[in-house]
Fold:
Amino acid sequence: MRAQANFLFVISAALFSALLIYTAVMLLNFSGPYFSGPRQDLQELRAIQLSDTLISTGGRWQNATGSGADWEAHTGSLALAGLASSYHNLSAAKIEAFANLTDDKMREMYGNDSLYFFCIREIGSSDCSILASNNTAFQGKIIRRYAHYINRTVEVRAGVW
Amino acid sequence: MSGRRAWLRMLEVVLAGSMLLGYLSYIEHTFQRPAAISLESIADEKLAQDIMVSMDLMAEGNTTYMRRCLAQGNYTCIEGYTREVLPGNYLFSYTIGSYKTRDIPQGGKVTSAEYLIYDQNNTQAVSYRLRLSVWSAI
Structure:
């Protein structure tokens, strides 16, 4: 009788532990996306949008008197920065003007509480020799893209948080 | 005896609980919406698209690098360029017409992007539909 009770105890304990572990794993899997997913997704989505705007468009300036894509000549009226002279073809003048934009202007475009990161570099290089943002503390999602610049392919990295 | 009853009761609860969980998981599996396209896949698709656009923009004489490779049927030169720019943790395959440069794995996450090249020569116009599939090597 005692041996049978012990046997039942062992079986029950094993089943109970297995179910406890199963439930815990299921709850962790279920809750994961709700706590960490949306934030990372939002960062990645913003990075994709930002990189698309930078490499696919020429940007836009706008004020009371006019508007146009040559914002590098009207940085005071810059509405949205883009670095392309044509689709995926980066302009040296726009990159230079972008590198000289003030932090206030950046915050005006990307949001007051935003952190941002930009890097344009040669393929295989570790230095952002073509464009570098000063923000080394950036911890958000950075997306990697490729574009054309002076008859060669360059790597564009961008992130905004 | 009362101890044994308690364990049997616990066993009943455990079995009932596991049946309930199984049933809930079946309901979730049956009625869940189709999985959304992940942002990671969108990022990889853009990466693949960027490579083909860049290759198409790369001027070489009076044509572009990519057009020259395609006109010569030299797919290894397209692959060589892609290997240079694509990060090391990616593998890739081009599908050009009915030709495939490498077998695409059946399982795992493969992301593809398409690109159409229209090449107007002096005598004839040729169009190529390229499909670049990328997947993680790890």
Q: What stands out?
A: Residues 89 and 148 of chain A are 5 Å apart (CA to CA).
